[in-house]
Amino acid sequence: MGKKKREPRVRYVKGQGISKVKTAYEIHDLKRYQNLEHYKDVVYQCGKCGTCRTVFKDAYWSRVCPSGEFGKFEAYYLGGKNLLIWAINSGKLNWTEDLAKIFYQCSVCMACVQQCQIPEIHSYAAEWLMAMREEAVKQGFGPMPEQKQYTEHIMVEKNPYMEKHGDRLNWLPSHIKQSPDAKLAYFVGCTSSYREQSVAVATAEILNSLQVDFRILTNESCCGSPVYMTGQIEKAKEIAEKNVNMFKESGIESIITSCAGCYRTWKDTYPNKFGLNHGIEVKHLPEFIQDKLKKDELNFSKEINMKITYHDPCHIGRHMGIYKAPREVLEKIPGIELLEMTRNRHNAWCCGSGGGVRSSFKELSAFAANERIEEAIGTTAEAIVSCCPFCLNQFKTNIKDNEIQALDLSELVRKAI
After folding, report:
1. The CATH number of 300-416 is which of 1.10.3720.10, 3.40.50.1860, 3.30.450.20, 3.40.50.1980?
2. How far apart are CA 128 and CA 37, in angstroms?
3. Does the 145-292 domain belong in CATH 3.40.50.11810?
4. How far does Cα 208 stand from its chain's mean position?
5. pTM higher than 0.90 for the full model?
6. 7-11, 97-101, 242-246, 356-360: which range is least confident on average?
7. Can you point out the beta strands (E) in 72-229?
8. In this structure, how many other beta carbons lie within 10 angstroms of the beta carbon of residue 277?
């Protein structure tokens, strides 16, 4: 038996997986989820030092920004974006289509934010990047055409994949047992329902194996994350209000998600951006499994002999601070050997599928995915594992010649039970 791997002793910003800066103190009274005006006196503090381009101190100063590395121009890095925001706020620059594209050619993965050592920028830059998208929509320059198209589809068919809402539960096998009066709901999400159905099946089977009383609401719809992340706040809030009302009226008290984006949206965006204090407990699947392991309510009985590497999804990593739970679950599975990539946890390289990038900037999206896949292959792992169906689909789409497998954590848990 080797020494037990320990989670790095890192302090994080409350509610996020962005580690705290220890070299200075915040001097502005800033809040999250505000409009662009709220941050106008802070953006100018950016020193254009370029620290946002590479991992600060750790991970051999590896590069971190897919947008900047692909765009190869200052405007695509955080430093350049800060300067553009300052110019917009001070009236020195006007909105144009090209300006809007710069801010949409970004997955808002927050890797750049993690690296900056100016406290206010370190803790809040992601907020003004999102506020800039909101402003782009108000000014009529956002979202991008493809993002507008899937939003229109969501408003009608409740998913961004141009699929029929009536087909949402086609993945559900007949052997899955649900409890009609359960207070716990499995929120499946659009990607697991329509594209990576193995994740949905595995999750439902895990819940059945653990004899958990749960149900899936037959009228479940998109959580609104793709709409919110592209700055379409009014429509995203409309979706959120309908979801909260439906779940509350159905008597749901707890939600389990297998989608990182759905988790972040229900747990953080609904209450903190939209003021919808729904009071529903929200857990991501790795958290739920971790809790069962700690209570000795789950024991893995089957050995899976496999070397794997774990990819931290941005939505639960830097956005929400979940790094420990997935790793603890994976390390408990007999036969699993976890090999970390150089860029991991709060320094993880984004898969390139979030923030509307995959729909509107396909070359950038593929560039980011391929770099992450190469990094995973370099560990000698047989599979890259994540707990986000969007990341999973991104990897599957971009892996060539079966060089490495792409799996979801739920699939390994189901095999090991």
Report:
1. 3.40.50.1860
2. 9
3. yes
4. 26
5. yes
6. 7-11
7. 184-187
8. 10
